[in-house]
């Protein structure tokens, strides 16, 4: 896998891990935020709804209490048949009716069970006495139950079958100065209107309900759940708040909250909250106790409606966009700062490995890779220099070896190999140009006996001297060489038969005369041959050798020339 792919895979992997972690963190955080926010909202909503309920009830309750304390009514309750007291009481009732919001009231006397009522239409003017309560009648049981409980104040949602109305009743016990319960007074509020005003306020995602001290539902937008006349129902038959929840844990949770609030009833404004499921949707329930009326107020917030998580999706979109931009920027930086320079470097290394020093232009970012590329370039440069130097030296040495291989080490003249190559070149040139050239083959006379008499060392010195004399005798462009032993071959080019003879003679004379000066006189015998175009080397050498042989056999120290016009030169 290439470095680029690795980097990208690594970056993508890291980003996916970061994205997953961020997504989980986001979900946790958003859930936590929504929960915190929901709890705050639930508390505020509970207080707000409680305040609204109490606000609309407080005045009515106050009036009902005043009515229960009315001397006219209390006195009359002791003598309900006393006309004067009764008229006075009816007047008092009617004055309260004018003040009650519902413009209705009821008064029930304990001793006689008489029930008085009038409504907003003043329908029962002069006939406020409606009927007599019967302890045996289930519809009247509420009255006897409340008296038995002895609670001075009670709210009760109850349909009045006699009157044909369903109301939220405010019931206040009427006591005589001795504290004895003599009756009950109160007013009712039209349940439908009240529900609309307080509970069914059409706030999307917010459900409000009120339950009594025992958890029985008193005010709820769905009337089917309201526990009408709960005061007279035995426990177990009441529509309690847990009916709203399907999950047993939620039922326990709500009931637990109610218990907790009962315990902490001394802390006004305390709100309990927790998550519950209603109709398959998760809600945050806020519960508060309203000591003024002895009820609990429950607010259910559908957080998904109030603050759907989709509200936070733009945040997710920004996050994903940021991740993508980060990936692209990361890719570009890695590409330009690492991958591209390394790929360039790899290409350069490959070139150097294959023997080429022509490097491509290397990217040098301002980092370790840039410095590495710079070092590599310098290293390649010095490698190129030293390789060049080495190659030059090898070439020089090769030339030198080539030259040495063609030089006779003793005399410094060409050796046999050098003479062979030169001879071939001359043959080719002669063939090209159609001209001939001269070849001289000479041998020192009686060299064996010189060696024998004077020693091998002295023989070498004579060989060197003869070489020098030969060099001195030829033209600058002639080529003298040592064929081997005491034999020398000289190629003369350009040349003519006459020149050949002249140079050969001059050689012989020079050696004879110069050697005499050294005290060790030597002579040489010379065979010459003037080569014609088309002669091969064997022919040429054989002819020169034959001429030498003749010179030797004719007495030595002489020149014999082989060729078309053979010239015989005798010793001088
Ligand atoms: N000092 C010395 N002697 C050499 C060298 N190479 C060959 N010789 C000797 O040279 C002698 C050559 O003798 P030849 O050419 O055969 O005979 P020659 O004595 O010269 O007699 P002719 O040629 O017939 O006049 C031999 O004794 C070789 O040992 C050398 O490099 N140095």
Automatic annotation (TrEMBL):
Entry annotated with the keyword Transferase: yes
Q: Does Transmembrane helix appear among the keywords?
A: yes
SUPFAM superfamilies according to UniProt: HAMP domain-like, Nucleotide cyclase
Entry-linked CDD domains: GGDEF (cd01949), HAMP (cd06225)
Q: Name the Enzyme Commission number(s) assigned to this protein.
A: 2.7.7.65
InterPro entries assigned: Diguanylate_Cyclase, GGDEF_dom, HAMP_dom, Nucleotide_cyclase, Rev_trsase/Diguanyl_cyclase
Query: Could you tell me which residue ranges the HAMP domain spans?
Result: 336-388
UniProt-recorded Gene Ontology molecular function terms: diguanylate cyclase activity
Keywords linked to the UniProt accession: Membrane, Nucleotidyltransferase, Transferase, Transmembrane, Transmembrane helix
Residues crossing the lipid bilayer are 311-334
Q: Which residues form the signal peptide?
A: none
Known catalysed reaction(s)? 2 GTP = 3',3'-c-di-GMP + 2 diphosphate
According to its UniProt record, this protein's enzyme class is transferase
Pfam family of this protein, just one?
Answer: GGDEF
Q: Tell me which domain of life the UniProt entry assigns to the organism this sequence originates from.
A: Bacteria
Report domain GGDEF positions: 435-564
What is this protein called in UniProt? diguanylate cyclase
**Which organism does this record belong to?**
Marinobacter aromaticivorans
């Amino acid at each position: 896998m290439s470095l680029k792919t690795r980097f990208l895979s690594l970056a993508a992997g890291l980003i996916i891990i970061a994205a997953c972690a961020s997504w989980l963190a986001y979900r946790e955080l958003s859930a936590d935020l929504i929960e915190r926010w929901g709890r705050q909202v639930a508390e505020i909503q509970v207080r707000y709804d409680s305040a609204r309920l109490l606000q609309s009830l407080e005045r009515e309750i106050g009036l009902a209490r005043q009515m229960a304390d009315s001397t006219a009514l209390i006195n009359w309750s002791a003598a309900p048949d006393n006309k004067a007291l009764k008229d006075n009481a009816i007047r008092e009732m009617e004055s309260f009716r004018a003040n009650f919001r519902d413009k209705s009231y009821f008064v029930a006397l304990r001793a006689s069970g008489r029930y008085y009522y009038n409504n907003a239409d003043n329908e029962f003017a002069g006939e406020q006495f409606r009927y007599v309560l019967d302890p045996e009648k289930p519809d009247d049981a509420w009255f006897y139950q409340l008296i038995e409980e002895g609670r001075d104040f009670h709210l009760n949602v109850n349909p009045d079958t006699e009157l044909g109305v369903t109301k939220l009743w405010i019931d206040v016990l009427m006591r005589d100065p001795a504290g004895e319960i003599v009756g009950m007074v109160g007013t009712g509020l039209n349940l439908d209107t009240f529900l609309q005003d307080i509970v069914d306020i059409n706030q999307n995602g917010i459900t409000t309900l009120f339950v009594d001290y025992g958890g029985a539902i008193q005010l709820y937008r769905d009337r089917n759940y309201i526990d009408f006349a709960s005061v007279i129902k035995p426990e177990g038959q009441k529509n309690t708040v847990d009916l709203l929840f399907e999950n047993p844990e939620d039922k326990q949770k709500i009931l637990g909250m109610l218990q907790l609030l009962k315990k902490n009833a001394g802390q006004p404004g305390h709100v309990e909250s927790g998550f519950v499921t209603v109709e398959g949707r998760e809600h945050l329930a806020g519960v508060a106790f309203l000591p003024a009326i002895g009820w609990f107020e429950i607010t259910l917030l559908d957080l998904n409606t109030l603050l759907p998580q989709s509200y936070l999706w733009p945040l997710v979109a920004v996050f994903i966009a940021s991740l993508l931009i980060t990936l692209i920027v990361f890719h570009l930086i890695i590409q330009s700062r690492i991958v591209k320079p390394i790929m360039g470097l790899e290409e350069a290394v490959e070139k150097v490995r294959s023997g080429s020093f022509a490097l491509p232009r290397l990217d040098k970012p301002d980092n370790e890779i840039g410095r590495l590329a710079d070092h590599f370039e310098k290293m390649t440069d010095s490698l190129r220099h030293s390789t060049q130097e080495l190659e030059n030296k090898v070439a020089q040495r090769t030339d030198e070896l080539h030259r040495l291989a063609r030089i006779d080490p003793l005399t410094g003249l060409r050796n046999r190999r050098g003479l062979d190559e030169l001879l071939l070149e001359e043959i080719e040139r002669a063939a090209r140009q159609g001209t001939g050239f001269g070849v001289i083959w000479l041998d020192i006379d009686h060299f064996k006996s010189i060696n024998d008499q004077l020693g091998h060392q002295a023989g070498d010195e004579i060989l060197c001297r003869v070489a020098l004399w030969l060099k001195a005798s030829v033209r600058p462009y002639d080529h003298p060489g040592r064929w081997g032993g005491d034999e020398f071959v000289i190629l003369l080019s350009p040349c003519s038969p006459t020149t050949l003879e002249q140079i050969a003679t001059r050689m012989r004379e020079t050696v004879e005369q110069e050697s005499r000066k050294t005290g060790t006189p030597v002579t040489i015998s010379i065979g010459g041959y003037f080569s014609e175009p088309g002669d091969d080397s064997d022919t040429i050498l054989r002819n020169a050798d034959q001429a030498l042989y003749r010179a030797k056999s004719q007495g030595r120290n002489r020149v014999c020339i082989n060729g078309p016009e053979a010239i015989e030169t005798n010793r001088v």
